[in-house]
Amino acid sequence: MTAHGKRALVSGGAGLIGSHVADLLRREGWRVRVLDNLEPQTHRKGKPPWVGNDIEFIEGDVVDRGTITAALANIDVVFHQAAYGGYMPEIAKYVRVNSFGTAQMLEIIREQNLPIKKIVVASSQAVYSEGAATCPEHGLVFPDVRPIEQLQLGDWSVHCPICQAVTTSAPTPERAPIGGETVYGLTKVDQEKLVLLWGKQIGIPTVALRYSCTYGPRQSIFNPYTGVIAIFCTRLLNDLPPVLYEDGEQTRDFSFVEDIARANLLAAESDKLDGLPVNVGSGEGASIRQVAEQISDALGIHITPEVNGEFRPGEMRHLTSDTERIRAAGYAPQVDLATGIRRYLDWIRQQADVRDYFSEAANILRSKGIVHRVKSRGERGG
């Protein structure tokens, strides 16, 4: 089937990634239906202006059986982007939206024998426990999550799981063990495993895209729990310092949202990635401190970042995606970090009410035990 006449459902299609996927599909001649519950934490002002009139829009929740059943009618390809994300304190909501919502959708497709031809599900680098690393003695290793006891001592390094030597970061391939060390990560493991397993069972091609840190225009300026680039921007624009956890030298692979949308289109139109988990990233790591400095320079607002000895248990130290699998299928990211940050800043400058929501959120995260502080020397018994 050619793109012309193909019908797509984009769940979470009003959000950062989903809306760019929907836009790209429309430009490529697809007919697009968007399902989104307009989560108030992200969409404080209701349906955003970028959901175009040429897109069929359903406001509703993926966990509502009637709503998702109606949304799936006469659809060829599902781009399942809807998820509850970030560092939030609600455990049950993650499981309900991400795990149960996905399971119910798959159940409905099978029960009603719907003619879905492919499902592309949004997974995440959060499925990994820690990024791959190189040990001086043992080569490429896959370390476990760093113990809280180690982090409480202010030791941020990643140790070899075999000999405990300090390692250096290496690109993480899809064969690295997955488990998820946050509730969000755990439910992303659920989502991708459910979709890939189900696809093999009933013979419908499925792809799980493990996104690296995604950013760009439309990233919510209201949600203080997701998107370090958005948080740093809103802090600086309110003359507040960016807050760095650990020492700020942890590294991430950043992907501009339009590149992520292109990866979704490729996964839908190619059979080279069928049945597989697939890393999507730039293949390059940038330190969080470096990102704060780049945003600072681009804004012309220079405020020294704040490092106050706090850390988030379960957070990986380094993660750069090994993108060999998706590149072999024809993917190449087109927007580098500096360009992407400039484009995001151009967008954020046009937004009203660029307030700092992070300070209040940080207090909630501390009270719920999601953010911890390094122990003082006295607390360590030394």
Can you characterise this structure?
This protein is α/β, with parallel strands linked by helices and 382 residues long. The protein has one domain: NAD(P)-binding Rossmann-like Domain (Rossmann fold), CATH 3.40.50. 33% of the residues lie in helices and 17% in strands. It is built from eleven helices and 19 strands. It has helices at residues 16-27, 65-71, 91-111, 148-152, 183-202, 228-237, 257-269, 288-299, 324-328, 337-348, 358-367, and strands at residues 7-11, 31-36, 56-59, 77-80, 118-124, 133-135, 139-141, 168-169, 206-211, 213-215, 243-244, 251-252, 254-256, 277-280, 286-287, 306-307, 310-311, 318-319, 372-373. The protein has a seven-stranded parallel sheet, sandwiched between helices. Helix 1 (16-27) packs across helix 7 (257-269), helix 6 (228-237) crosses helix 8 (288-299) and helix 8 (288-299) packs across helix 10. The protein is globular and about 55 Å long. The termini are far apart. The mean pLDDT is 89.
Largest sheet: 7 strands, parallel
Mean pLDDT figure: 89
Secondary structure tally, helices: 11
Question: What is the class in the CATH system?
Answer: Alpha Beta
**What amount of the residues lies in strands?**
15-25%
Could you give the order of strands across the largest sheet?
A: 3-2-1-4-5-9-14
| Name given to the CATH architecture | 3-Layer(aba) Sandwich
Overall strand count: 19
The low-confidence parts are none
The helix content, as a percent range, equals 25-40%
The name CATH uses for the topology is: Rossmann fold
N-to-C CA distance: 69 Å
Overall form: globular
Oligomer: single chain
Q: Strand-and-helix sequence, N→C? A: EHEEHEHEEEHEHEEHEEEHEEHEEEHHHE
CATH H level, superfamily name: NAD(P)-binding Rossmann-like Domain
> How many structural domains are formed by the residues?
1
Class based on secondary structure composition and strand pairing: alpha/beta
Rg estimate, integer Å = 21 Å
